[in-house]
Amino acid sequence: MPSLVKFLLQDTTIKDIKKFYSDKYKTSVASNAIRSRFIKYFGLGSAFRIKLMLLEPSIDECFKRGYSPIETLNYLKEAGFQYYDGLSQKMAVKKLKEHAVGIFGDLRPLKSRKFDRWEAIKASRFVAPYVQYLRASGFDYILPPRDAAMIRDPDTGQFIGRVYLDPRSWSILEHLFILRVPRHYISQYVGLTPSEYDLYLSNRWSHTLKIAGLEFNRENLRNFLITSSTSAFDNYDRYLNLPSSMRNIDYQSRIGDFPLKLNKYYSRDFVDILLKKGIGVREDLLVAVTKSRGDNRIIWLDRNDFLHVLDRHAGQFETYFGLSGPYEIGNFIFNAITKRDVYRSYPGMGKAKVYVYRFGNNFLQVVVGTDGNIVTAYPSVFSN
After folding, report:
1. Domain for residue 100, yes or no?
2. What is the DSSP string of 234-248?
3. Residue 240 domain-assigned?
4. Residue 237 included in any domain
5. 19 and 94: one domain?
6. Is the N or the C terminus of the chain less surrounded, counting Cβ atoms within 10 Å?
7. 115-123 CB contacts, 8 Å cutoff, 24+ apart
8. Which domain range does residue 16 map to?
9. pLDDT by residue for the chain (384 residues), tens digit each?
């Protein structure tokens, strides 16, 4: 039985299964005998239908969370399914879409080719329930008041940082927009035409992006919203009681090359000092550079290490400290470095040093390299 399941999920053919059992038992095995075993264990003689039956719960969970085909393939692989291994990405996506249609049917309106089969199923399994959830949570699509995107330093007059954007001031449209829901499905479930939807986004956000120094376009807006606040979607998967492994956000793929900078903890003078010391920092990748309170050391964080912190530890920051999103987490880390006493420190791997900050019964551990770069940072319930 376990071998049969393994074969089915690896897309092994009946011929391959026959060969495996023939080699194992040193005798030939008929195809009908294998099909009889299928019927005995699964109630079905069709290997294809059994494969769909085994994949269905996991694919359905991916649809409920609004996953793309690529995200679904990655999830299935991490969950131990090997069915799509060895295929090119294009072929794996094609096969996954075929399997999805085999499970849920072709839900495209009039089977029109301009509608993607995957998106049609996702609209039914995710968009419609998510819109209902948003409305039940008090969201609508009425134009809310503008949020300030930056705050002005009273001394220099310069914009120094983003104001946290409260997602409760968003409409339903922003929550769907950041998840890349196609316009025709937004029109279907919210009741706006595509042109009205585009006009809403422009009227609502063009000024905000302008004062943040960004050109107004859909990608800049999406990245700005993702990095500036926490959407209702972060609570939706808990509402659905989906596995915790599905709650991770791949910030690298979602944010792309969008700039990440903690202006409150960024000093040009410290950048110059690092460069004079021969430390090869790249300004375009710097997220923050400041001095620590404890040993007055210049501490800096670059984009790649910050994305590592977010991808690996964002869920822990939310669990231990109630934080979510790059700016909340980044400002929390640097607030500890610049304003709190070090609870203790100890040597890390190589020549790194670990600084521990205490917050009640929880701790923040910040690993700093020899050049002052933050290698990683994460919460814990132990001080080590």
Report:
1. yes
2. HHHHHHHT--GGG--
3. no
4. no
5. yes
6. N
7. 115/184, 116/182, 118/68, 118/69, 119/182, 119/185, 121/63, 122/63, 122/66, 122/67, 123/181, 123/182, 123/185, 123/188, 123/189
8. 2-110
9. 445 655 555 555 666 667 776 776 667 767 666 666 665 555 544 555 566 667 778 888 888 888 888 888 888 877 767 777 778 889 989 989 988 888 888 887 765 666 788 988 998 888 888 888 888 777 775 544 444 444 444 455 444 444 444 545 678 888 888 888 888 888 888 888 888 888 888 888 887 777 767 788 888 888 777 665 556 666 676 666 655 555 555 666 555 566 678 888 998 899 999 999 888 888 888 899 999 987 889 999 998 889 888 877 887 788 788 887 788 889 999 999 999 999 888 776 667 888 989 998 888 989 898 899 998 898 876 555
Contact present, 97 and 69 (Cβ < 8 Å):
yes
State the Rg of the chain over Cα: 26
Q: How far is CA 379 from CA 147, 204, 262, 339, 376, in A?
A: 31, 36, 20, 17, 11
Token readout for 197 is: 């939807």
